[in-house]
Design goal:
The chain has 538 residues and is of the alpha+beta class. The chain contains 21 helices and 17 strands.
Length: 538
């Protein structure tokens, strides 16, 4: 021990990470320059004198020196230096001082009683010095004590249970108290960092930097949900990193897709519901990637808003994270841009970008398409994320209208319209593992007439039987309310069918079965024939 006075009164609160500004438990083996020595909340230890020496050497402001002299804890010193833009002093002093004292150095009264109990057994090999001056984490040290107790059990020690209870109590006491302290201090340092990164001029222009920091903190837990093998680092850097699984592929090909949610966002604004549009954003990108025969690896989002409301940003990103989980890909980064004067205060735009990987020989390009191939339809969840400019015009959308219950739908109009876009990634990958898929069309903006021809080669026509396609009441309601001709409906919306897949006719039943087992509604809805490139709806 370091001959400090009253050490039991001032437990270590953690290490300061100078890169992030957060108090952390010191990860085992990480003793690089990223981490400083231990900070204490009620005692200055060995930091005050070297800090003062450095400040005087640098001829710093006397007010800063006075504040440091009056400080009563390492955390307070750190706060003073950060506020004075003197992080360099922290780095110099913390790296120069051998002030790291293991958490296990702190022995409270109850812990001492446990040690004394051992001594009553006549075992002088266990001492506070030997146990508590260990470089191992405190929990591991307690584990050593537990091991010694277990040895005593073989000797028939009657007090074993009592002493074991004491050890457990000490462990719980230390861990709970320290966790609470760390949590509080992390919040303090986060607040300090926010206070430090603040521009009054920028705020006057309508951009709240601190709200941006809060948004990042709020979304971290949601981003963590999406972690998959291959993710490197975390959010907050200048680029999202992902290790390409090259060993899983002979000839890996990267496939990318980008899209946005479109004017469906207007429905979210009026409903004040923002936790589903992120799913839409992911779906529009990853479905396109999967239609090429690739597995989505990672996703990035872009949110542009008139004003950064952290709670709203969190809701949006929570939806993005949910979409990534459904697609089996990672959310590795993104951007939130506060753009006052460009967007209304309560509005935002949301777009995204996804990258996937596929085996070159197994990519779906339409080149294997042939006359006689069966066309399989996979049901949509509703309108998805296309055609909302027409939807809003048809219904003369208002907040009041959106909240009215519609008998044909079994829910309110707003609930129906905000139903997230179906993510087909996992069912498609399951299908392509067993059946060779010749072509796929994702029915998005432009409906059947624009999207089905995209899966075709010259010389082939897709014949689709409308009666065999899936029906959704919302489309009948749109057509009726807007008096919209059938062709316009099929040229704008998915009409209840989100995917059209071409396979060999002999594999059609198997393909339908696989898709159904994956949780999708699927059915044979047509076939490929020779003819002019295009689609016939019969």
């Amino acid at each position: 021990m370091k001959n400090y006075e009253n050490v039991e009164k001032y437990p270590a609160v953690g290490r300061l990470n100078l890169r992030t500004g957060e108090v952390e438990r010191m990860p085992k083996g990480k003793h690089n320059g990223e981490y400083t020595g231990i900070l204490y909340n009620g005692d200055c230890r060995v930091y005050k004198k070297p800090v003062l020496h450095q400040l005087k050497h640098m001829k710093c402001d006397t007010d800063v020196i006075k504040k440091v002299k009056k400080s009563r804890g390492d955390l307070e010193i750190a706060r003073i230096l950060i506020e004075a833009d003197l992080m360099n002093v922290l780095v110099h002093v913390f790296n120069a001082c051998d002030a790291s004292v293991s958490v296990s150095d702190y022995i409270d009264e109850e812990y001492e009683k446990v040690i004394q109990e051992f001594r009553t057994w006549g075992d002088n090999n266990i001492t506070p010095e030997k146990i508590c001056n260990s470089d191992e984490p405190w929990q591991e040290t307690i584990g050593k004590i537990d091991a010694e107790i277990a040895k005593k059990a073989d000797a028939g020690i009657e007090k074993l249970a009592e002493v074991k209870v004491r050890c457990d109590a000490v462990r719980e006491k230390f861990s709970v108290a320290r966790a609470e302290e760390l949590k509080r201090l992390e919040k303090e340092l986060q607040d300090l960092r926010m206070e430090k990164s603040f521009s009054a001029s920028y705020a006057a222009a309508g951009v709240d930097v601190t709200a941006g920091y809060e948004s990042v903190e709020r979304i971290k837990a949601h981003v963590k949900r999406t972690t998959v093998p291959g993710v490197l680092g975390g959010i907050g850097g200048f680029g999202g990193m992902f290790q390409l699984p090259v060993n899983d592929y002979k000839e890996p090909v990267l496939v990318s897709g980008t899209d946005g949610v479109g004017t469906k966002l207007k429905i979210a604004f009026l409903m004040d519901k923002h936790d589903t549009v992120g799913i839409d954003c992911v779906a529009m990108c990853v479905n396109d990637v999967a239609c090429s025969g690739a597995k989505p690896l990672f996703f990035l989002d872009y949110i542009a808003c008139g004003k950064n409301f952290p709670e709203k940003i969190e809701q949006i990103v929570a939806g993005v994270a949910e979409g990534c989980v459904q697609a089996g890909c990672a959310l590795v980064g993104g951007e939130t841009a506060e753009m006052p004067g460009f967007y209304p205060e309560d509005e935002y735009d949301l777009a995204g970008f996804s990258v996937g990987v596929g085996e070159k020989s197994k990519l779906v390009s339409g080149e294997e398409l042939q006359a006689g191939d069966a066309l399989i339809g996979v049901a949509s969840s509703g309108v998805h994320s296309n055609g909302f400019s027409l939807v809003r015009k048809v219904f003369n959308i208002s907040s009041q209208r959106l909240h009215v219950q519609v008998p044909e739908l079994g829910k309110s109009l707003g609930e129906e319209l905000l139903t997230p876009t179906r993510i087909y990634v996992k069912p498609l990958l399951a299908l392509m593992d067993s059946v060779r898929v010749h072509a796929i069309s994702h029915i998005t903006g432009g409906g059947f007439y624009e999207n089905v021809p995209r899966m075709l080669q010259d010389g082939f026509t897709a014949v689709i039987e409308k009666d065999k396609c899936f029906k959704k009441p919302i489309f009948d309601l749109i057509a009726k309310e807007g008096n919209i001709p059938e062709r316009d409906m099929y040229n704008t919306f998915n009409m209840g069918t989100g995917l059209v897949i071409a396979v060999d006719a002999t594999k059609a039943d198997e393909a339908v079965r696989i898709l159904q087992q994956a949780g999708e509604q699927a059915a044979i809805i047509g076939q490929i024939k020779s003819g002019e490139k295009g689609v016939e709806l019969v």
